Predict the 3D structure of the following.
Amino acid sequence: MNSNKRPMAHRVFGWFDDRLPISSLWRSQLTRYPAPKNFNLWYFFGSLAMLVLVMQLATGLFLAIHYQPNPHLAYWSVLRGIQRDSHWGWLIRDMHIVGASAFFLLVYLHMYRGILYGSFKKPRELLWLIGIFIYLALAAEAFLGYLLPWGQMSYWGSAVVTNFVTAVPVIGKPIATWLRGSFVVDLPTLNRFFVFHVFLMPLLLLALVLVHLIALHHVGSNNPDGVEIHDSVNESGWPRDGIPFHPYYTVKDLFGVSVFFVVFFWFVFYNPSGWGFLLDKLNYTPANILHTPADIHPLWFFLPFYAILRGVPNKAYGIMAFAGTFALFACLPLLDRNPVRSIRYRSVLCKANILMMALSFLWLGFIAHGFATEHNMVYGLHVAEVFYATFLVLPFFNRQRSTRAKVIWLVVAEALVWLIDVWMYSIHAHGWGLMLLTDWIPALYLLLIFGLAIVFPGLARDAQKLPERLTAGGVFH
Amino acid sequence: MAVLSIGKDCTKPIRRDQAMTTKKSPFGRPGALAALAASLAVFTCGAARASVASTQPPLKPITVNLQDKAALRNGALYVLHMCVACHSLQGARYSSLPRMLGLSESAFKQVIGTNGHHYHDTITTSMPPAIIDAFAKIPPPDLTDIARRHSPAWLFTYLTSFYVDPSRPNGVNNVVFNNVAMPDVFAPLQGLQKPRMVEGLRYGSPAKVAIGVEPLTKGSMTPAQFDRTARDIVEFLYAVAHPHQQERARLGPWIIGLFVVLSILTYLLYKLYWRRVDTSEERWWRVGR
């Protein structure tokens, strides 16, 4: 090959390409990466979450330039320096605020997609687990960043969460002091939260997202049918139901990005505090160490966890139940071992259970949005039992169960629910009258799931015939 | 475009704890079974409304119009000459106000003035720190973002609803802000007021609750004049708390419109590309080369 006859641009690119795997990566990861052709609406959220991550990094860069991590300066450096004195500071900050909520919304939808279509099952267990770590890093990032404006809710939210570790006996308090660098949330806390928020966690997030992508491209994408596209390949080894990621999915994601930005910028321009959900109204008051707000609650994306935390009438157990939620997510590949991946071909009761998983999560958030009355705490705990149950009954659906096994599942599950109430009564947490007001919720749920499985075995039976190839695709399928 | 209807707020509860019904749970421990049966019937949303409730006084509706520059100027006069005696607005600068008020820099300096501060200074309180310490202990809240913290309807009701309460150190209380520390600085203008009390709930316990006020003595303004003044103050505070409202209203439609157009174009592009996907399965894998 006579390289002198090639155009200059090709020769320059060739020089780089010989020394860096640009075109080979482009080919293997984009133009020759086979993606199933039937991705639907649920498959937009992963790439959108990556877009929001980049947007948060970009807007965060400008915010960090103007921000002062010092309790005397922080509040006004945000509300005057950034919002009013800097050119476009208000736009950058509102994009960062709305971006944080958008990130969580997209990640929750992305996770639920994985649950719907069994994307956590073999061989994608590690992919799912890395995703859970991304979610944890994101939660930490959001929590750390929330302190920085140094408003009332920032301050007291951080005070509550850094007090979690005091639940550990004996060494809890010294650890909390060490974490905060002070006996209360103060200058050292703000300084380290700032550094973690702008440096450590973003780095960790980027690294985890990269590993997540590498793992994804190693095992290949799942799809709404849960069919392994590599099981049916043509004579040149290309999956019959696969299409190159680029240009097909890049062009499709462009459409998703455009629609997303319509909604995103509506919030940024017209509703930046999102009815008080995206930014708490109390945060327009500077932090005051002498004035504890009557109601300290997290932003919307942590509300379900908050309901679980305050539902348990014991600090250590409450934190265990709260952390247990993440353990449940992480253990999903162990709990659901049914070989059928997609919800499309699961039994009716399993479909209902997976729907209830999302509904009870929203329900928890709704309860946590209410004032911390004794009733709302018990109510939250009982709905948390439903949320836990939606995960813990998954092994029940792993295979066909005999009637005797179903009855045992029912009795054991109901007994567990009632035992928790007996324990609460025994430690004088609540009276029976208050507990019975909502205790029927988990009891009824378990009765419905197992009872219907006993009476109508057909409802617990997965589809008899699974597709060998993909069914239809498109945006709204 | 900048006219914002806030009137709806009067029907909406401001705080969740105040929004709940005043019904108390009638179920004691012996009534457990009855409770179970009843709760099944009412379903859980109804059951969620339990006992930490406070009686909610109605808020006076208000419409904020940022184009009404005369009202904003009147509000600015009151805030910058009266409120800043104790409060600060240190998020804002004097130099940020003329444009909002529709005044030139020299006219602003002449008509409203900068209280002896530099034109580009932030709006600080005139109260010296030593006085704050001796008189108020806790500095009165900064007013820069007070209209973000509270709705305009709440602020309007707050400003007009001080009433005589001899049990308080300053002799006054407020309908929407129980046990408020602020003295009734409007008494010379508005006159004193007496409360309209009802038997209600405060954080779940029965209590006498003020839900409105009635005039007690005459002030230098008629009630209509004073309401107008209070409204101007709220409008000015709202404008200070939302300094970029006009830019938002101007830019928003363009940016959102851009992405609406892009959505349509990218949808067409997506359909154009994907026409090939549903043809013979042997063809689409080669396209990527």
